[in-house]
Amino acid sequence: MDKRQCKRCCVVKALEDFKGTNKYCERCLEKEKEKYQKNRKEKKERWQKYYRNNKTEILEKGKEYNKEYRQLEVFCDFCQCKVKKCRWSKHLQTEKHKHNETVKNDEEEKVNKMTDEEKDEYYKIKKLKQIWKTVWLRR
Ligand SMILES: [Zn+2]
Ligand SMILES: [Zn+2]
User: Fold this and answer.
1) Residue 3 in contact with residue 14, Cβ under 8 Å?
2) Near ion ligand 1, which residues have CB within 5 Å?
3) 126 occurs within a structural domain
4) Collapsing DSSP states into helix, strand and coil, what is residue 36?
5) Which ligand is nearest to the CA of 26?
6) What's the pLDDT tens digit per position in 60-116?
7) Domain total for the chain?
8) Domain that holds residue 114
């Protein structure tokens, strides 16, 4: 008859005392489950108690976190601008962004079809345009 040793109580028992490929026998499995549930309950109660005693502080921290989160910025590659993280999904919906995204995608498609020489030329002109733009804007 096939037997297996339980990893918890270390007793060698018949296979029917185990559920499937479990390393623990059924009795030990039940005990482990109880322990886990008790632990979870205790953890929850501890947190609730902590929350009750430190409510203002916890809420204050939450507000601070929200404030910091609202100030985080992401850089949009399409629009070449910074966007507040909390407005990011809204930004993706704006006409400006959609337009810039199409332009950039079209541009990429165009560049992909170019020969290497054409690419070089294209980027050179683009760079010049950019330099011109920044110089012009600075005046
Ligand atoms: Zn056991
Ligand atoms: Zn954008």
Assistant:
1) yes
2) 6, 8-9, 25, 28
3) yes
4) helix
5) 1
6) 999 988 888 888 899 998 998 999 988 999 999 999 999 999 999 998 999 999 999
7) 2
8) 94-138
